[in-house]
Amino acid sequence: MKHRLLLAALCALTTVFACRAGYNDDAWAYIYMYQNAALQTEYKYGVPASITLAQGILESGCGKSLLTRRSNNHFGIKGVGPAGSAKAKDDEPGLSTFKAYHNAMESYEDHARLLSRSSQRYGKLHNYSRWDYRSWAFGIKACGYATAPDYAESLIGIIERFQLYKINNGRKLQGGSDRRVVVRRIIRRTTIVNNDNGLVHTDSVPEFEDEDLVTLNDDQITAEEQRLDHAVENYKLIENGVPCIVLMPGRTLGDVCRDYDISDKKLLFRFNEVKGENQLTEGDIVYLDTKRDKYEGARNSYTARPGDTLHSISQLFGIKVKKLAGLNGLKDTSTRPRPGTLIHLN
């Protein structure tokens, strides 16, 4: 499908997050829809529900990525699935084959089997408690699940931002990738669900060793949570009439290519005017279509700040670098304007 048609559908379906409220709403809707699936797979395979949901939110873009909507693949798992396969661009050269599923539960089951105790690669993660989401997050990254260098921190940020640790009666944990959580004992708590029919529900509530040293109050903000919060605050949908996103923690440009079915060459060279993916990092605006010749918003100029380049300003306002240089009588697009310089936008 041509990328312009995809971008039209993208805007109509709000597949990028317009703002903090949009991201929160999408994530909460995803959690509400799939928390039972995550708990079922935790009970069956031992994979923490908090980790499963955080990976689902991150890998599927809250269920809105093209791969997820086309193939019910919530975790970016490659190969041939029960419903065949789907071709998509990712962080490896060319097209990769991703598993397709008949429904979301198949995807959740497959993900849990991949991380199960019998897995040669991931089985050692079960040495950690299912309430020790921090050790699980760093362990998953160390085992090679994802290429993003901050993948573990991103999972932790999502778990803490949305208090996913509460889903299996866990607690918010203090930072430190080498701090292990030891469960002293598990208390079985029974709740009557329907007294007329005699239905009861039993929970497992952990008590941790050195609880004061390993846990936090819910309102205490960790570095991982603060980092994710900062990225969400800067999320955009449209800049100067051009669809764009802010590159979230734990995501790579390869993930963006895969999610929006855009080749890496188009994304880098044509849409964002950079030579390599290392020039766009976490928190940067990433355009999903060609930028404009001039700024069509309310303002006419911008005052350069320390560290600004023509390219960074062009990304801020959705203008092609060469066009921005021309509007300001500059021939060299690598020019760094002095702080305080008035940059014309149209």
SS class = alpha+beta
Percent strand equals 5-15%
Can you count the beta strands? Answer: 9
- Per the principal axes of the C-alpha atoms, what is the gross shape? elongated
Question: In terms of topology, how is this protein built?
Answer:
Blueprint: H1 3-13, H2 20-45, H3 49-60, H4 66-71, E1 85-89, E2 95-99, H5 104-114, H6 133-142, H7 151-161, E3 183-194, E4 199-208, H8 211-214, H9 223-233, E5 238-239, E6 242-246, H10 253-260, H11 264-271, E7 285-287, E8 301-303, H12 310-317, H13 321-327, E9 342-344
Helix pairs in contact: 2-3, 2-5, 3-7, 6-7, 7-9
Task: Note down, in words, how this protein is organized.
The protein is α+β, with helices and mostly antiparallel strands and 346 residues long. The protein folds into two domains: 3-227, Lysozyme (Orthogonal Bundle), CATH 1.10.530.10; 228-344, LysM domain (Membrane-bound Lytic Murein Transglycosylase D, Chain A, Roll), CATH 3.10.350. Helices cover 38% and strands 14% of the residues. It contains 13 helices and nine strands. The protein has helices spanning 3-13, 20-45, 49-60, 66-71, 104-114, 133-142, 151-161, 211-214, 223-233, 253-260, 264-271, 310-317, 321-327, and strands at 85-89, 95-99, 183-194, 199-208, 238-239, 242-246, 285-287, 301-303, 342-344. The strands form four sheets. It has a three-stranded antiparallel sheet with strand order 5-6-7. A two-stranded antiparallel ribbon has the order 1-2. A two-stranded antiparallel ribbon has the order 3-4. The longest helix is centred in the first third of the chain and has 26 residues, at 20-45. It is elongated and about 70 Å long. The model is unreliable at 1-20 (pLDDT under 50).
